Amino acid sequence: MSSDFIVAKKEFIKVGETTIPAPIGVEIDPKTGDLLVPVESKPVGDPVLTPIIKKNLLINEGFIKLKLLFKLQNSAHCPDAKGGLIKEVVVPIQSVQKLDNIRPGDEVKEQSKIKAITIVGIPADTSSKIAGQKANLIVKVVLKVKLIVYRKKNTASSAQ
Question: Model-level pTM?
Answer without folding.
Answer: 0.81
